[in-house]
Design brief:
The protein is of the alpha/beta class. Helix content is 34%, strand content 16%. Strand 1 and strand 2 form a beta hairpin. Keywords: Lipid degradation, Lipid metabolism, Membrane, Transmembrane, Transmembrane helix.
Length: 425
């Protein structure tokens, strides 16, 4: 079944018929490429690839299955207990165009005095479209990537982009306060990076981006501006600059007609969140955000009622107009590709991509295609799903961060990657 053959009602039937233990059969995986041979190679049966330098001048890709890293440290990870040692501070930085952005600093105040080696580079967590950093990465103590990172000794910074989380909000009736994805890249990212680097005294940091937060890192590296060198490593969580096969690519014409003045994501998602666990009919709506069977109800309710904010029409048009195209996400004027193959082929920043096998926002093949563009000798992509032997459960868009089993099935991949590309202080 191709993308053009699949109608919205069929997509919803596929979603509602699925469970965490059923393999989706690669339905989404084959939509990215046009020809059948490319489609076959793009399927998530090729779980992980690592760039290897061959004896010739060209690069080769080795594909293989990959399970969760075997690490005694990962097994001992107690996310909930880590929350007891965390100290949280609120910071504010100002963008060049005058927006006030909130940054949360989370750390273990006793880490510096400890005798054990600690990581050298801070970690910056960047949320996705219309999302709060706190509700994405630090939802509840037992389901917090922030806590897990602090438990490993990392100095953690969580950003809120303009209009979202605790950052400055727009005036809904003043178009001059609306923005696009380009504004995030051109103004928010430099302001946040400069602030964190100055506050920590570090020259580089690890970037972990969820969804659009990962796309911004790719865009930053495609720009090759002054801050590109500040990225020690990049982890793309449920991300990718190519979205063909996603639910929004299928429903794009309808979404465009309904969102002429933007979309009140906060109000709509809060209404859904208030009914989590009580309205079975909303199962398919929840499945657009996470696999309901893989998400604690408390997390699901808090995510839906508090994470999302208003999405300006410029952001919607930029996503629908380019993310789902062959070119992938581009600037509003189409002059710049966020995942520029020519530029990324020479980028050597270590890149890890993690996508869920049932992610309907950012399909796994889009994440794989994005990672594959990098010339980095250290690059890796993992599609999380039982059919690949990489996890016991299927993962959607947000449960890859705060799902019931993310701490044991997802976090070890992240911790291992950071450790591999860091050095003790």
């Amino acid at each position: 079944m191709s993308m053009v053959d699949l109608k919205a009602p069929q997509l919803l039937n596929l979603i509602t018929d699925a469970s965490c233990d059923e393999a989706p059969g690669g339905i989404l995986a084959g939509w990215l490429e046009d020809d059948s041979s490319s489609r076959e190679s793009a399927c998530c049966s090729e779980i992980e690839f690592v760039l290897e330098r061959s004896s010739t001048s060209s690069d080769s890709i080795r594909c293989s299955s990959s399970s969760t890293p075997d690490s005694s440290e990962a097994d001992a990870l107690s996310v909930g207990e880590a929350g007891d040692i965390c100290q949280r501070e609120s910071h504010v930085c100002i963008t060049q165009d005058g927006w006030r952005l909130h940054i949360s600093h989370v750390f273990d105040p006793t880490a510096e005095a400890a005798d054990t080696p600690r990581p050298q580079h801070p970690v910056l967590l960047v949320p996705g479209l219309a999302s709060s950093g706190e509700h994405t990465f630090d939802l509840l103590p037992d389901y917090s990537l922030v806590n897990a990172l602090v438990a490993r000794g990392y100095d953690v910074w969580v950003a809120d982009l303009r209009g979202n989380g605790h950052s400055q909000k727009p005036c809904l009736f003043d178009r001059s306060t609306w923005w696009t994805v380009d504004d995030h890249l051109q103004h928010d990212v430099p302001a946040v990076l400069q602030y964190v680097l100055q506050a920590t005294g570090a020259r580089q940091l690890h970037w972990i981006g969820h969804s659009m937060g990962g796309m911004l890192a790719v865009g930053l590296l495609s720009q090759q501006g002054p801050f590109a060198a500040a990225l020690r490593s990049v982890t793309l969580l449920a991300s990718g600059c190519f979205g063909r096969g996603s639910w929004h690519s299928i429903l794009a014409p309808l979404i465009t007609r309904l969102t002429g003045y933007g979309f009140p994501a906060g109000l709509v998602c809060a209404a859904v969140g208030s009914l989590v666990g009580s309205a079975a009919a909303l199962w398919f709506v929840e499945a657009l955000f996470y696999m309901p069977c893989n998400m604690p109800q408390a997390c699901a309710r808090k995510l839906m009622t508090g994470c999302f904010r208003y999405i300006p029409v410029g952001v919607i048009r930029q996503f629908l107009g380019s993310l789902n195209s062959k070119q992938g996400l581009t600037s509003c004027d189409s002059s710049f590709r966020y995942a520029d193959p020519e530029v990324l082929s020479s980028v050597q920043v270590p890149v890890l991509g993690l996508n869920g096998s049932w992610d309907l926002f950012c399909p796994a093949v889009g994440g794989r295609q994005t990672v594959q563009l990098f010339g980095s000798e250290a690059k890796q992509f993992v599609c999380l799903g039982p059919q690949h032997g990489t996890s016991k459960r299927h993962y959607g868009h947000f449960d890859i961060v705060s799902g019931k089993h993310a701490a044991e099935e997802v976090y070890p991949h992240i911790m291992g990657w950071l450790q591999q590309h860091d050095a003790p202080l």
